[in-house]
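This follows on from our talk about sequence and fold. Go ahead and set the record down below:
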Amino acid sequence: MNSNRSESDQTKQITYTAMMAALVFVATYAIRIPNPATGGYSHMGDCMVFLAAYLLGKRRGALAGAIGGALSDFFAGAAVWIVPTFFIKFGMAYICGLVLEKKPDSAATEISGSVLGGAFQVAAYTLVKIPLVGMQPAVLSVPREVLQTLTGIVIFVVIAKALENAKVLRRRAAG
């Protein structure tokens, strides 16, 4: 009986992770604003990456964010960004989830976790862009990356608050 329950819990966790990866993909892929200077694009997926860390915890949330973001780059034809995106979104969500674990019922923690994860993303993408597109385009893309990240943080905080108020979902999972 214990084995069946364990398998059922594992199946649920895999399903939740896959569903969040799909949400990250849709939010990233559905509305894309191309950046010809870098071969990348701005999008709304960051809010779902933060939400994945909030709902699933640092490990599963990071995996969902990484898969969803990388799939978006694949389908958008941005092949050079698939691997960097996978690792950057993983790190972004993992950092956010790590902070969220410290004080899970705090709006300040939600904001600080997403800001730290977002800062990692901005720095990491900038560093990856330097060898790919050059120093000037990399540096000039920072304001756009910051704006995308801040928009994602605001939308994430609004969604998290709405979910908490509606008591639709349990607070984020451990891990």
